[in-house]
Amino acid sequence: MGSLYQMTPVKAALLCGAVIVPLAAGCSGSSGSASHSGHEGPAAKPATIEQLAQKTGCTLAGKRNSAELRQGACQTSRGRYTLVSFTDDKGRDSWLTEAKPWGGSYLVGPRWVAVATPPILESLRKEVGGKIINGDQHHSGG
């Protein structure tokens, strides 16, 4: 396997596609912080993007696949979100390392990540479990 810094064009495209949602949402959140509202939801379990989509009531669109990860977009009454599943937690952690500098918020479970605004992630967490973490905070202006 290649290192994080030898990202393939497919990985780069998948990474960019997944961070578009949080960038469009304003990149809110503070770096590395986790959200703990006291309502953790069910215990998070490893799942494919199809299983996550079924549990959250969405039909996947724009699915993309590579050897290391699978990604799909969801649009439901609660809003837009991206689901990404990985072959292992090491791949998930490498992906998060690359994605967090772009900002955004992530619901993280074993071998998967959901990307969306914090309110959507809180809603998803009630159904699939996981831990909400935030990427780097970006400020506008100087």
Please explain how this structure is put together:
The protein has 4 helices and 7 strands. The protein has 142 residues and is an alpha+beta fold. It has one domain (28-134): Protein Transport Mog1p, Chain A.
Structural class: alpha+beta
**How many beta-strand runs?**
7
Radius of gyration computed on alpha carbons: 14 Å
Widest sheet: strand order?
Answer: 1-7-5-6-4-3-2
The portion of residues forming beta strands comes to: 25-35%
Helical content (DSSP H or I, runs of 4+): 25-40%
- When the domains are counted, the total is 1
> Which geometry do the CA atoms define?
globular
Distance between the termini: 40 Å
Which residue ranges are poorly predicted, with pLDDT under 50 across at least 5 consecutive positions? 1-14, 18-39
Question: What's the main sheet like?
Answer: 7 strands, antiparallel
Number of helices: 4
If you consult CATH, what is the topology?
Protein Transport Mog1p, Chain A
Q: Return the average pLDDT rounded to an integer.
A: 79
SSE succession:
HEHEEEHEEHE
Gross CATH architecture: 3-Layer(aba) Sandwich
